[in-house]
Amino acid sequence: MKAEIFLPEDYRPAEDEPFMNERQLEYFRRKLIIWKNDLLDESRTTVEALQDGTRNIPDIADRASEETDRALELRTRDRQRKLIAKIDSALRRIEDGEYGYCEVTGEPISLKRLDARPIATMSLEAQERHERREKVHRDD
Question: Is 124:113 a contact under the CB 8 Å cutoff?
């Protein structure tokens, strides 16, 4: 079992420390776990609300409005389910020692990018190239 890594509450990964050292990895691991738990809590709340909200609404306009709200909520939950899968993948990369490195170039992903999007798998440059290629192929 790993020893607990102490992180000051105000800790932020810095460029002047070794890339993906234990403290940085722990910082991102905690950030990902908190994000995942928040999403799971929201999901539980939604499921409870949807179960409680199943009722017969006589007015057709009100019923249509409620159905639209439910559909939107379910789409949002589906997006969050996919996001949780990406969070789990990032947590596995931390365990495997691959986190923080671009899956295309192998170069480090900037700390700013990882802090803003901790599930990032590509450096900003590789992501931009990928999106440009995707756009070109989509226009065919």
Answer: yes
Look up the domain containing 123 and give its range.
101-140
Please state, in angstroms and rounded to a whole number, the distance separating the CA atoms of residues 61 and 57.
9
In a domain, 36, yes or no: yes
In tens, the pLDDT along 80-101 reads: 999 999 999 999 999 999 999 9
pLDDT value for 93: 97
- Give the residue from 38, 139, 122 showing the smallest Cα distance to 84: 38
Q: pLDDT averaged over the chain?
A: 89
DSSP for 71-97, please give it: HHHHHHHHHHHHHHHHHHHHHHHHHHT
Is residue 7 in some structural domain? no
69/122 same-domain check: no
One domain for residues 119 and 63: no
| Burial class of residue 90 (count of CB atoms within 10 Å of its CB; 0-12, 13-18, 19+) | buried
CATH of the domain at 93: 1.20.120.910
**pTM for this structure?**
0.80
Q: What is the DSSP secondary structure assignment for residue 122, as one 8-state letter?
A: S
